[in-house]
Design goal:
InterPro entries: Bact_OuterMem_StrucFunc, OMP_bac, OmpA-like, OMPA-like_CS, OmpA-like_sf, Pal, Pal_lipo_C. The chain is an alpha+beta fold. The chain has one domain (3-193): OmpA-like domain (60s Ribosomal Protein L30, Chain: A, 2-Layer Sandwich), CATH 3.30.1330.60. 38% of the residues lie in helices and 23% in strands. It contains six helices and eight strands. The longest helix is centred in the C-terminal third of the chain and has 21 residues, at 135-155.
Length: 194
Amino acid sequence: MLKTKVGRRLFVGDWRKEAALVLTSPANQQLSFKGSLNMRMKFLALAAVALLAACESTPNDAANGANTGAQQTSVRPGSAEDFVVNVGDRVFFGLDRFDLSPEARATLDRQAKWLQTYGSVTVTVEGHADERGTREYNLALGERRANSVKNYLAAKGIPAARVNVVSYGKERPAVVGSNEAAWSQNRRAVTVVN
């Protein structure tokens, strides 16, 4: 005997001779089917197609940009999500470096402009390092990186009291790995809206 639980009903039958299938919907409506194994498989295939057809999204929705973020307007201006999506929250550093690259300065210029627009917002700059080096060395390097960001924002007119600094060193990697691709993503400073 083959016993299979389908929905809230129990299917019991000898699968070699005859199959019985009882399906229940969430509203406890029953749909029963008895027949040969071949017919049962056809019925299951039909039920699966009907179930998939009932889904809300269609391939055309995805092709037109639905649920892809391209047309989303639900990001509230001045929010942490607005900062991450429209400004950029991180800058990257070279090996054992805490000086700002031209790309980092461009990102920080956008951050400074956003912080000037939303004058009541405070941020915390998190300094990070890759896994190489001692814990103490990487904590100090992460702090120097975070302070580089804070000093740059201060030079752009953001009061130092609105910018906190914390270093995580190598304790919170963005990418796990022991290669240059991972290390380059972990040598960063992340500005987090409080």
